[in-house]
Structures are given as C-alpha cells and as structure tokens.
Amino acid sequence: MDLLDSIQSAMQELEDELIEQLKSRVPVAFEIGAHIMNSGGKRIRPQLAIISARMGGYTGIDALKLSGAIECIHTATLLHDDVVDRADTRRGRPAANTLWSNEMCVLGGDFILAKAFSALTSIKNLRILEIVSRTTERLSEGELFQMSNIGNLNITEEDYLRVITDKTAVLMEAACRGGAILGGLDPDREEALAGFGFNLGIAFQMTDDVIDYRSEKATMGKTPGKDLEEGKLTLPLISALKRADGDERARLGRMIKERELSDQDFQWVRELLQRRGGITETLERSREYLKQATDFLDIFPDSEEKGALMKLAGRILTRTY
Questions:
Q1: Which CATH code of 3.40.50.80, 3.30.365.10, 1.20.1440.230, 1.10.600.10 fits the domain covering 3-318?
Q2: Cβ proximity of 172 and 48 under 8 Å
C-alpha cells in the first residue's frame, strides 16, 4: 500500500473514530455533533497530525485519537461561531443553530470539546495534552478579540494577524507538533513541523478571507461577504482601506453600521478591493507565509510523507471554498 492509499485508509478510520468520540447517552448531543461533523469539511488538521506522526514512522492508534480530538475541537469552534454569527448555512447545509436552539448548539459544542479532551487523555501523553489545552485557550481568546473589534474600521494588520494566529494557525501548529511528538522526532524536527503548521495556518486563513469576497454561494456553501456583513474586517479590506479615500471609507462605514449588505453593496466592495489592491496584497502575503511553511520542511530528507505535506501546502492558494 502506497502512502496515498495508506492516508486515505487512515482518513476512513478517522471517520469511524469521530463517530466513536461523539457517542453520548443523550441522543441530541450526538445528532448535533454528527450534523456539523458530516457537513463536508476538508479534514486538513487531522491530515496534518497523521502525516506528521508518520514523518517519525508512527502509525499507531494514538495518531487517530489525536487527529480526531483536533477535528472535534475545530468542529466545536465552528458550532459556537455559527451561534455567535447567527449563520444560516455551513458548507452548503443548514447551520446547526437553524435546526436546534442556540442554547442546544452551545451545549453541543461544549460536549464536543469535552469528548475531544477525553480522547486526548486516553493517549496518556501529558505534553500533548498541555499543548492542545493551551491551543484551545488561544482559540477562545482569538474569538473574543475578534468580537471586541467588530465594526472597527481602524483595525490594523497586526490585530488581524493576532486573530488568525489564535483562531486558525495555532490549531494547525498543534496538529503538526502533536504528530511529531507521537513520531518521536528530535526537537529540531518537531519545531520544523510546528513551524510548517503555523505558517500554513496563516496562509490558509488569508486565502479563506480572499475566497469570502471572490467566490459565489454555490461554490462556497455560504453567503459571500458574510464577514463584512457581520462587521468583521479581514486582510483584503484592511489592505484596501489603507489606500481608500474619504468617501470610500464613509460608504463602507455606513454598510458596517447598518449590518446589511445588498447585492449592489457587495459588488461595490468587490470593485473596491480590486481597485485598491486588497485581494492582490492578501494573496501576496499568503504566498509569503506558504513559502515560510515549506521552507521549514527543508530539514527533512525527501520522502512520501514530506511530499504529502508539500502537496497539502500547494493546494492552499488554489482553493475556491
């Protein structure tokens, strides 16, 4: 069995592991978790954990437990985000909070987080548990910091980087570092994989924020421009605003204040991003972080596992959803 087949087999085993982790004495807890878990995610974080472990030759059950826990943590944050954002759809399907109450979804997210840490505890590796625990703290801090800047036209690129570091990059870093620990890699190679995951996460989120303005609902599975309608300014808009004139800033400010974006408004914003270079600059920054990510892999000799990580990285900028 070659590496690709082996990884595909592991991902199928992961789906079984996720179902196992979501089991509950309360049927609705499983139903909420299964609904969002089966909504078509790319499973990039579990793949990072599994491949990173294999970089050190580890293929045991703990890699599945780690990758399942990482995906559960990510899924719980999505569930909470949909409640906070009052989302209607998630990856082209009804968001869980449209099928169950907000209260049920918050508690469902809490349940998924608890199950993640039960799985992590069963690995019996205190260092991995500590790493993922700190990461989960930062996920919450990132969400709170972003919420505290809703509607802030003066948010800086540094503020934005803080948000996406805590909300996206640190979980990918933890997936890679946890896998490296399971694989018994030496400190230099562990740090290299962690650096790869961190920078990949930054590039991933910057590209995601471009997609929010460039793609269509049929492709994305959610309404384009949703971040702006919620008052969240991401790098494409932050970059464009540096070059915007007073009238453009004023019109954008009115849109954010009203929290309602018409099709005409959204088309104007798209044109603003093109005119003021917000999309171009964001993609350039994403490429820079992607290059930093792949540079971290130079410490490793060529292998199927290294090639798989490089391939994952190569897909980041070509994503359409």
A1: 1.10.600.10
A2: yes
